[in-house]
Amino acid sequence: MSFDENYFSTHTYAGISFGKCSQYWWSNRFFARIARRYGQQGTPLLEVGSGLGHLVGQLGDHFETLGLDVNHWALVQSQAVAGSTRLQVGSAVDLPYADGSFGVVIIKHVVEHLENPDKCIEELGRVLAPGGVLILATPNLDSLLKPLKGNTWIGYQDPTHIALKPPKEWLGLLKKAGFKIERVFADGFWDVPYIRWIPKMVQKFIFGSLGGFQTISGLVFLPYRWGESIIVIARRA
């Protein structure tokens, strides 16, 4: 499957409101806060898989921002929200940048789509400068509540998720590529419902409150098994 306009209308962004009350908006705000906290202001920042530009577009006032995506259509749409960002079509496994070009790289829910994620992670290590920060997110096969979802778990719903791995394997690949792991945490339990017969809105409050508080507050505290995705903050050695 190609990551074209149809993909954006049927998968990640399907049915999502981009207003300030949406999960999508709060997620991007959270990742932007992490980037500002861990990255050095004024350094070049690359988002690999920048999609519609709503994350990288928030960071132009703090970094020299670049966005890379395989989808030309998405990059065209990005111009409205990421006007100061340099946008480029390219592949995550063959990054078109010189060694050590960036102080920060964000790759949010991309590696699980790749036939060769090992090569992608090697490339991330190559383009980051020594001491540079990587922020990576991917579905969490070790999620504590995943067994309650079975085959309906959110990570299995996208047919382009062809490289799902347990956190231990992702961390091993990062270490092999020369990264020092600083933080590994989760995004919370938002894939409701988990239990039959309990109203969905009730489950959102029961299961989603901690993840929601983490996202809104910008604090990082959820253990890596307490969520549907893992988020890794690593630094290039």
What would you say about this model in short?
This protein has 237 residues and is an alpha/beta fold. The chain is built from seven helices and seven strands. It starts with a helix and ends with a strand.
Describe the structure.
There is one protein chain. The protein contains 7 helices and 7 strands, in the order H-H-E-E-H-E-E-H-E-H-H-E-H-E. The protein has a single domain (5-236), classed as Vaccinia Virus protein VP39 (Rossmann fold, 3-Layer(aba) Sandwich), CATH 3.40.50. The protein is globular and about 55 Å long. The longest helix is centred in the last third of the chain and has 18 residues, at 200-217. Strands 3-2-1-4-5-7-6 form a 7-stranded mixed β-sheet, sandwiched between helices. The model has no long low-confidence stretch (mean pLDDT 92). Helix 3 (72-78) links the parallel strand 2 (64-69) and strand 3. The chain has helices spanning 5-10, 23-38, 72-78, 117-127, 146-149, 167-176, 200-217; strands at 44-48, 64-69, 86-89, 102-108, 128-139, 179-186, 229-236. The chain is an alpha/beta fold.
Figure out the total of helices. 7
CATH superfamily: Vaccinia Virus protein VP39
Q: In total, how many beta strands? A: 7
Q: Assign the CATH class.
A: Alpha Beta
Low-confidence stretches: none
Output the strand order for the largest sheet.
3-2-1-4-5-7-6
CATH architectural grouping: 3-Layer(aba) Sandwich
Cα Rg: 17 Å
Share of helix, binned: 25-40%
- Structural class by secondary-structure content: alpha/beta
The SSE string, one letter per element, is: HHEEHEEHEHHEHE
> What number of domains?
1
According to CATH, the fold-level topology is Rossmann fold
Which band does the percent of strand residues land in? 15-25%
Mean pLDDT: 92
Q: What characterizes the major β-sheet? A: 7 strands, mixed
| Basic shape | globular
Distance between the termini: 36 Å
